[in-house]
Write a structure and sequence with these properties.
Elements lengths: L12 H14 L5 H6 L10 H15 L4 H10 L19 H11 L4 H12 L8 H7 L1 H11 L5 H9 L12 H5 L2 H8 L7 H15 L3 H14 L3 H10 L1 H6 L2 H6 L8 E8 L3 E3 L3 E10 L5 E12 L5 E13 L4 E9 L11 E9 L2 E11 L1
Helix pairs in contact: 3-5, 5-6, 7-8, 9-12, 12-13, 12-14
Amino acid sequence: MAESFQVRNYLNAEVIRTFGKRLKTVWSAFNVPEFEDLILPFLPDWSFSDRVQGISRALESVLPADFPKAVEILLKALPEPMPLSGDGSGTAHFIIAPQTAFISRCGQDHFDLSMYAFKEMTRRFSSEWDIRLFFERDPARTRAYLFEWTRDPDQHVRRLVSEGTRPYVPWGKKLTLVEENPDLTLDLLECLKNDPEEYVRRSVANHLNDLSKKHPDRVVNVLARWTNELDGPEIKKLVKHALRSLIKSGHRGALRLLGFQPGGQVEIRKFVVKEKAIHLGSNLEFSFELISTSKKSQSLVVDYVVYFRKANGTNNPKVFKLKTLTLGAGESCLIQKKHPIRPITTRVYYPGEHQLAIQVNGVVIATQSFTLKM
């Protein structure tokens, strides 16, 4: 059976050879065989992060030691920028990730040139993983550039302002500085909250969702003010996406901001787990009837929580989205779900008793147990 595709495969041997040839066209002294020899023998064993850093180190070995000259070569070899519309989700330019890594490692003493390089590279891919190292080292100086970029005509550059300073950007170094002091980025987000591009606004929402992990009330207050200042489906969508973690955790302020009464006025009946004992690799199947006890229509966000057994015998809850609906007075709704209990890279399963709970508007209102067999 063929190996399933992995993100690291975006940085494959063919991509690296093509990149080397492109560098050769803009700098005739570039040693393509040496560059390939520093990478290709090790590629099969490298993870995505290993490949990014390995290619970056190879660039450092074969490019001129003079950093401005090296950056000039890399910039000349860049492809055309991404279109000014769209979400920038293309994968053709993953080879730029090692180049931004090169800038972050070798360009700390060339701040202005490095920021220019980050801007140009993010127009082709993204510099979000590496600009955060500059922000961490010199937030004031980096913020001056970021404020300027909030007005840039290129949406990819504007998005970098938010995505590059998120506390927990995927695959990136955690920005503890921002996690502890949200004032470092909230004023930047203010400039982007009404951005014309969904691509940028979604990054703002993800940034605020990150901040909500440690500053829930602050984030709710900011979004409440934005809701009062702005109107329309765009800001409503941003607010909903930014509050998704707080809604799952049952934060009352977040629930009220989205129009949900904590817990709702409901009853659960006929809550059935199809199989009380299931094997790893099968499905946890359950159903229940949700009945409104309110005398008026109400909005409900229904989640389910699986309390996964840990190695020490305790349970770790994980909330999953189920359904958002509106029930009129006395109305009911039958809800059914199959949840796969299959091996995944982010979870280790342990045999024994687990718990399944139904959560409505952030409040657990019914629980059942089931046993997992390995």
